[in-house]
Amino acid sequence: MVEALRERRGIRDQLGAAQTPAYVYDLAVVRDNHAHLRSALPDSAGLYYSLKANPHPALLRELRAGGALPEVCSPGELDAALEAGWAAEQVLYTGPGKRDVDLDRAVRLGVREFSVDSAVALDQLEAIAAAHDVAVRCLLRINDDQPAAGQGLAMTGVASQFGADVAWVLAEPARFAGREHVRVHGLHLYMGTNLATVDDLVAQFRHSVRTAARLTDVLTAHGAAIQVLDLGGGFGAPFARRGERIALDGLKTELERLFHEEIPRPAPEIVFEAGRYLVGTAGTLVTEVLDVKHSHGRAVVVLESGINHLGGMAGLRRVPPLVPDLVGEERGRAPMTAMITGPLCTPLDLWARSAEVPEVVPGDVLAVPNVGAYGLYASLLAFLGHPMPAEVVVDGDDPQRPPQVSRLELIRINREE
């Protein structure tokens, strides 16, 4: 997407009425990513979009129109899904810890499917469903015995808040088989994130399918009816670097073979989850150069965006440590090597100690590619109170469509019930 921004009149001109800094999202890329992933999965499989990647309303509406379902893990994400047009009964509500007040509200709004991570979470959901005299369904999230190879961030196979250990479920299956108002109708196995090859993805899904088969037999004997298998995702995409989404050639064939060979009949419904793969390459951060100087023999470029706008969670290892690619307008200037910092009053506001960038002067703009996922919504927005970036939505399939400009409210008020 950043190349398209650079090719048409210049980076700044694509912002419409917005000033820098700004995140620019291209709906055409979202549509293309969704279509590509859908074509790489078996036709019968379902696909959820994980709102944690980016809950911008325009992106959500686009994905809903394409047929994706919403996976949420907070009241704010639930509000965003409902406001985008999904019905409450289409929502999968996940997360390793849920407040009673939030679960109660979700049930009152009509959410009927949840992912739970422990026996306590089942008891909690039972109490709330019973209080409303409704029946709900849940996926029992499983923490497998070993992590998946090739993952960017371990979600299972280690001590974790996510899921019930396989050994625990096998030792006490009756505690996980459901409650009077809570039907355990599926298993949820999400082993890792940001896998970069089809081989790694298939290996992860094969391990999950085999684990599910072991647990299904035990849980069925105690009254559970496993009708859904959520295999998570892990579909990789570049972050803040040049590059394309990973190729998924051959994935559909491998998955169809895997399901045919490993899943007993009648087969459960298979669903997947994706976040970064659908929106990561659709987003670009555009930011202005505030200062260029030399310090102790090193060039220093100070931008109006720093860890408050991008990569604030890198220190928590939620996203990789940042050394972002910075793309500038073609002006025939030679590249330069510089320290890249933001404007915050802390030496921790550092994108790169040494990076090659186009030669710049104050007032130039630079663009960081592939930050549509875990960009603005995974940053330290409140830290030091600098202005938040604008968000600009464009459609590469309709270049005459004016950019839509909005700005995130720091505190989101829950929708009226």
Present the secondary structure layout.
Elements: H1 2-7, E1 22-26, H2 27-40, E2 46-50, H3 57-66, E3 69-72, H4 75-83, E4 92-93, H5 100-109, E5 113-116, H6 119-131, E6 136-143, E7 153-154, E8 164-165, H7 166-171, E9 182-188, E10 192-193, H8 198-220, E11 228-230, H9 251-262, E12 269-274, H10 276-279, E13 283-295, E14 298-303, E15 327-328, E16 335-341, E17 350-358, E18 365-368, E19 390-394, E20 404-407
Parallel strand pairs: 1-19, 2-3, 2-12, 3-4, 4-5, 5-6, 6-8, 6-9, 9-11, 11-12, 14-16
Antiparallel strand pairs: 1-13, 7-10, 13-14, 13-18, 15-18, 16-17, 19-20
What can be said about this structure in brief?
This protein has 417 residues and is of the alpha/beta class. Helix content is 26%, strand content 24%.
Descriptive notes:
By secondary structure, the protein is an alpha/beta fold. The chain folds into two domains: about 25-280, Alpha-Beta Barrel (TIM Barrel); about 280-405, Beta Barrel (Lyase, Ornithine Decarboxylase, Chain A, domain 1), CATH 2.40.37. It has ten helices and 20 strands. The chain has helices at about 1-5, 25-40, 55-65, 75-85, 100-110, 120-130, 165-170, 200-220, 250-260, 275-280, and strands at about 20-25, 45-50, 70, 90-95, 115, 135-145, 155, 165, 180-190, 190-195, 230, 270-275, 285-295, 300-305, 325-330, 335-340, 350-360, 365-370, 390-395, 405. The strands form three sheets. Strands 1, 13, 14, 15, 16, 17, 18, 19 and 20 form a nine-stranded mixed beta sheet that branches. Strands 2-3-4-5-6-9-11-12 form an eight-stranded parallel barrel. The chain has a two-stranded antiparallel ribbon with strand order 7-10. α4 links the parallel β3 and β4 (about 90-95). The longest helix has 23 residues, at about 200-220. The two termini are about 40 Å apart. About 45% of the residues are buried. Mean pLDDT is about 90; it is low at about 410-415.
